[in-house]
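Example complex used in Figure S2.
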Amino acid sequence: MDILTVESLYKTYGEGNTKVEALINVSFSVKKGEFVSVIGPSGSGKSTLLNMIGALDYPTSGKVSIDGRDVYKMKEEELSVFRRRNIGFIFQAYNLVPELSVEENIVLPILLDYKKPDERYIDELLDILGLKDRRRHLPGQLSGGQQQRAAIGRALATKPAIILADEPTGNLDSKNSRDVINLLKLSVERYSQTLVMITHNQNYAAYADRVLSVEDGVVSQLGGNPQ
Amino acid sequence: MERITLILSDKYVRRQAASAALVLIAMALGAQLIAVRMTDSYKKALIRHDSAVAGYLVRNGADRSSVAAAFTSDESAADVKAGSSLLASAGYDLNTQNSLLPMVEGFHRKFAVLLLASSVLFSAALLALIYLGALRRDRQLASAAGKIQRFMDGDTAVRLDDCGEGSLMRLYAAVNLMATSLTAHIEKEKQNRLFLKETISDISHQLKTPLAALLMYNEIIQDEKTGSEAALSFNDKSRRELLRMESLVQNLLKLARLDAGTIELEKSDRSVRDFMEKCVGSFSTRAEREGKILSLECPDLLTLRLDETWLGEAVRNIIKNALDHTRPGNFVKISCVETAVATEIIISDNGAGIHPDDIHHIFKRFYRSRLSTDLPGLGIGLSLSMAVVEKHGGTITVRSEPGKGAEFRLVFPKLTNL
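Predicted assembly (645 residues):
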């Protein structure tokens, strides 16, 4: 079942001489439970693509559907609720709230939806993420790897339809990077999550079921095992 | 408090609560306005009445200053008492009917109408508000029910609009999550089944060639005539086993193809008698050899829409099964009957019968009774028969008493006549 479909997506910045075509006719789809990585050099349009999928930015033309719903047809207000419920984001810079503890950061998206967090699930998440004895710590008291793991926990907390990760290992050393990638892989399998991850590291791309390559705004598929 | 924020997070609930509050505030203000009007009206009536009394007294010779003082000085309890006893003797007291006092009557009538009108107005406004809210919710739920029905009817891409706040939207989000997960599971299940079918079919295909070769080698050995008694008997046994394996592979292939839905039944209206004679005919030699009585009873004019090859396979499997489980001297009776709603083919015997422990499992694949391990069989014939009969829109029922025989009924409903 296709959880994400991208149809002939174009994004152009600027006009006339300064016109930059960031994405050119991008079409692909991601099935539920798939781990897709997107690789490409800096400035190739990877992040633009991820922002389009996450509806953080609007394309020049094209269509993106997540779980059968056209995200660009929604009003801004609807979209923010939709993002909160259906999309989990993991950023290179973690983007944790510095005033809140690890556990509070993780349950934040659930509380934003006026829901009661499922204690057992959160405990399990903290356990898997190796943050059980750090749950009361503030992000500032944690290492980069731990902070990123907390961010992964936050993305997983609402059990979203799709998780978008933008260079999750960008700020981490190789050991922490491996841990984070392994965790992502584990969560994809354990919770049947769907994950689209941007990385510039070919080695980490190999963990994915499918690899998409972006070069000068054109997306093509590299090997992988087609399903 | 948390509950209230939660409930008010729904835009429409908030809007409705606000409108209700507005109506209630308007009602309170309206009541105050009416109170002011009542006061005015009362004041006017009082002064008018007092003026009339004063005028009357002056005209009848009362002292002007003392009359004016009567209306401006403070009233004392003694005055009230003396005055009321005086007026009571003239029939003018609290017991006087309102209808005899036009001023009181007018006052009552005016404000009764005003209050009635305003309370009707505000009640109507509140009721309309509740009705509109209920109508909205009803439409929302009806549209959601419609979408869920569409999902159930196979449109798995349909989702509820859950991009809003409030408990209903959160419920929709949960339903959407469930729908997505269900769809993913169904798809996975389908793939798994397809994979299984393909595997069975592949294995069967791969086994066919070596089996054919083995059968041929076996024949060559048989033709060699080694003269050894033991070699000959084992040769015979291996041939029997090979044939058994071949029929297993063939049946497996048939079953896989039936399951995969790759075969189209070529159904046509056939005379049941002709069809059954062909099926029974192929067993007459075997029955004679084994000393069993095989009989067929079928009315001439009975017809059924069937695929001769596949249904023949199904019927033959059951007859074979019956012959396998009877002893010399037993009978296998085959009859066809037509009832008002169905055409039935009945295959009954007085052989060993089916043990009650087994009877619920005999149509399962590869099910072999622990009580009949000595008899040949693969545990696939009956499930193949069931699959074929079901493809014809029919069903198989079985009834048996151990030691007294078994009765299989192939029932084909006459749906067009219903």
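The interface with chain B takes residues 1, 3, 32-33, 67-69, 74, 77-79, 81-82, 85, 113-115, 159, 161, 192 of chain A (CB under 8 Å). The helical segments of chain A are 46-53, 76-86, 102-112, 119-129, 144-157, 174-190, 202-205.
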